[in-house]
């Protein structure tokens, strides 16, 4: 007999994210009067991005004077009235049906009516409440009883682009502990390297201030200088670049793209070199090829503009056999765009951000399509985060194998790492690490 766990209460409020901007928190109570006197309450805080793709689901902002127009009272109101009406009394254990009702209440493809920050908050909170009611850890509720794969951290140690106020044009530079035996040791290796990088920067009189995601934000001239600093930090931490720790980057190329010139402008590099630096798509691919040849660079995210399908095909042809090419702005966690990418051989991995699409069911569908096609899925945070750890459980539940959740500093980032440590501890000897396509194809 199918179990029924009714949704009894839905309530949202406006809270703050890690940038001090408003976002939506949702509480959903299930089972009141059926499972326990007071029921079980699940919570979710919705993240927000700074570098956003134009094809993402709409994040609804008030556009009024308070909070410089970034308030989310309209989205909160939509949760407390329209979405509450849609799901109250429904079975919280039927996540796909709940999310379908949420989609119908909004009625638009990109969530522009109620806001993806409203729809996602309800969707995630329902799942959290259901897991609590069944007394299951969230990762097991989402992924099933044999969930056991821990993700490799793609740890951001240097920020640039829209995530920092410095001369670095590319947005993120990351390290991946591909030679670790387990998540716990991989996290330790990354943490030690991060601290060594801080020492190196300080000794060179470079800034040790951090960007939105906790990576350091010094003024340096180009990507090569950054990779040299990273290589030195890895070695001084006692590890071998490429064998124990490899590199990844998020170019966020859409932020550099000049549509009129059909090329990519590097303002920071231009200011440091005293000349205007512009690269075509072909030159960008050549640049990445050289970087991957000189350094243990095994993953490049958003290497080209979010609608440059021909450029992505070229990049995949040239680099796809030895470098993970991750589409973020290109795919925006949307199965239609992922399907096109698979068909056109544009990329070989997908970044999964739940707030890009607006419901848990749609995000899981994106992961499943990606994995079924033999591509890698990377679960990711946003630059505007919170103490919510949902994506840590999601990464394990989906067996994604990789997670982006920032540097080993700032509470909203370490909360996810600490949650993953707890999950691995709970899994014990059953926990698996680095059992995916990354191990075979991209480590050097």
Automatic annotation (TrEMBL):
Source species of the chain: Candidatus Blautia pullistercoris
This enzyme's EC code(s): 4.2.1.11
Pathway where this protein functions: Carbohydrate degradation; glycolysis; pyruvate from D-glyceraldehyde 3-phosphate: step 4/5
Domain Enolase C-terminal TIM barrel: 147-441
Subcellular location: Cytoplasm; Secreted; Cell surface
Organism ancestry: Bacteria, Bacillati, Bacillota, Clostridia, Lachnospirales
Gene Ontology molecular function: magnesium ion binding; phosphopyruvate hydratase activity
Keyword Secreted: yes
Binding-site residues for Mg(2+), renumbered to this chain: 250, 301, 328
Name assigned to this protein: Enolase
Cofactor(s) in the UniProt record: Mg(2+)
Main localization category: cytoplasm
Signal peptide stretch: none
